[in-house]
């Protein structure tokens, strides 16, 4: 599986689990880009079945409901859903 990387200011390891068809996921990507931070993401719905299963299992560690978007920051904080205020708070922006 290939993570997509978006360049920007390094504010730690920011990982976004998304769906290519999800409006809230698109808004989250747009927010991260607007904030100018570096992050990586996967559009989980575009993965093959085997990869998708592995990613969902990994994601459930943070978000047992496996809902989208899910943002994990520095392998410590998890933000579920589109939550610009919390993202800015966690990134200290």
How are the secondary structure elements laid out?
Layout: E1 4-6, E2 14-18, H1 23-35, E3 39-43, H2 49-60, E4 70-73, E5 77-80, H3 84-90
Parallel strand pairs: 2-3
Antiparallel strand pairs: 1-3, 2-4, 4-5
How would you describe what is shown here?
By secondary structure, the protein is of the alpha+beta class. The chain has one domain: 3-Layer(aba) Sandwich (Glutaredoxin). Helix content is 34%, strand content 23%. It has helices at residues 23-35, 49-60, 84-90; strands spanning 4-6, 14-18, 39-43, 70-73, 77-80. It has a 5-stranded mixed sheet with strand order 1-3-2-4-5, with helices on one face. α1 links the parallel β2 (14-18) and β3 (39-43). The longest helix is centred in the first third of the chain and has 13 residues, at 23-35. It is globular and about 35 Å long. The model has no long low-confidence stretch (mean pLDDT 95).
Q: Which descriptors would you attach to this protein?
A:
Glutaredoxin; 3 helices; globular
Short précis:
The protein is α+β, with helices and mostly antiparallel strands and 93 residues long. It has three helices and five strands, in the order ββαβαββα. It has one domain: 3-Layer(aba) Sandwich (Glutaredoxin), CATH 3.40.30.10.
């Amino acid at each position: 599986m290939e993570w997509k990387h978006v360049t920007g200011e390094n504010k730690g390891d920011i990982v976004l689990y998304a769906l290519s068809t999800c409006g809230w996921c698109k808004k989250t990507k747009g927010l991260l880009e607007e904030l100018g931070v570096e992050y990586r993401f996967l559009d989980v719905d575009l993965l093959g079945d085997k990869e998708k299963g592995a990613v969902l299992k990994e994601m459930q560690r943070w978000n047992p409901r496996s809902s989208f978007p899910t943002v994990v920051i520095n392998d410590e904080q998890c933000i579920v859903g589109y939550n610009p205020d919390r993202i800015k708070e966690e990134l200290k922006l």
